[in-house]
Amino acid sequence: MTEVSTGPTRQRTDTNRLTSAPPLGEVPPTMLAQVIRPERYGNPSQAFAVEEIRTPRPGPGEALVYVMAAGVNYNNVWAALGRPVDVIAARQKAGATEDFHIGGSDASGVVYAVGEGVDNVRVGDQVVVHCGQWNADDPYISAGGDPITAPSARIWGYETNWGSFAQYTLVQAHQLLPKPEHLSWAAAAAYVLVGATAYRMLCSWEPHTVAEQDVVLIWGGSGGLGCQAIQIVKARGGIPVAVASGPERGEFCVSLGAVGYIDRGDFHHWGLPPDWRDDDAYGEWAVGARAFGKAIWDAVGAKRNPRIVFEHPGEATIPTSIFVCDNAGMVVICAGTTGYHAAVDLRYLWMRSKRLQGSHFANDADAAALNALVASGTVDPCLRRTFEFDEVGTAHQLMNENRHPMGNMAILVGARDQSQVDFQPAG
Ligand code: NAP
User: Would you tell me how many other CB atoms lie within 10 Å of the CB of residue 306?
Assistant: First the structure.
């Protein structure tokens, strides 16, 4: 299909155009979108540009949401860079005709149209969106498999087109959840991706689900995933211990419910450990790892190792995570931000029956459970900074350079509830 595009613009977007919502259910033929194209792959600050694009229409099982605000996540940093996956080429290989990418995997908004067979939402519903998509007729799912581990599972607004950095976004209707009433549009757009991912990691890998008094080590406690993880562990009666770089980030973790934090800047044994045959070098590495374990005991106030380690830095930290994890405990990981080679000293894994568990986003039930925790005020989205629609590239650039704020970020699309900091610590 030929796309309508007026070409990119870096002029300031007409705010009236963004905020003058058409009457409910009236869908204009074109919309404004922040678009990535292959010729712009590279720094996020350059990769996104505002274009006028045809408005998609919902097919069977789908819904069209008028976007009020959109959340910012790492996956559209990767999409902008064009690596590790060229998302446009990958979709074209699978048969898509569009030569552009509209990213955005978190949103709050209003349902404007629904496709055939949709009965869980109606036009006018105020919603938030989770980013898990899959084929309804996937045989793996029909056979009882968990949809998010199905071969057809994909992440909306990253692996799929028509994400939330646009006036309208196309979703599968099962992705929609009620917007928590007490939240601003921006705050409502900021938490589902990270929150539901954290929820699944902590609450869905039986028997390693957080129980009362479980010690849980949370890497990057002040980050998007970490701030949700701390609050979820606390809500379940566990004992969250955060890792952070520096006291400001550490104190933020404590304000969310961590019993204490470990400043990773105090340690130097990160990355791949030395060869195990080199006794001296390996011994030195083990001194660092043991000292880190002792720092966990100090934070807990007892000689207790974490039953669950919440991992995402990956290469830099996995050897330590495996080392400090309690006997028969679990290291659960959803990313490798520092690298993908995980060195695991297998002696600790088998002799002490430890589990290394991969985890990727969430299914409908995980996302709904997390949303209920947010709706009840138990978990706060930790929105720390809100950007204008023109600043989608800027927000992702900050993230790419690790200069983004603690907690989560959102982009105003149709909404104008400019809330630079509307964060309230939970409980
Ligand atoms: P974020 O907000 O940037 O938080 C990550 C935190 O990691 C940072 O705040 C930082 O905290 C810590 N960190 C950075 N470098 C580190 C290092 N070398 N060693 C230890 N800790 C380090 O990012 P996020 O939103 O939480 O996402 C984190 C990762 O998870 C990303 O790669 C993202 O793509 C991925 N992710 C995956 C899924 C999934 O479903 N698979 C879902 C969400 C996110 P300190 O500097 O304070 O330690």
Answer: 25
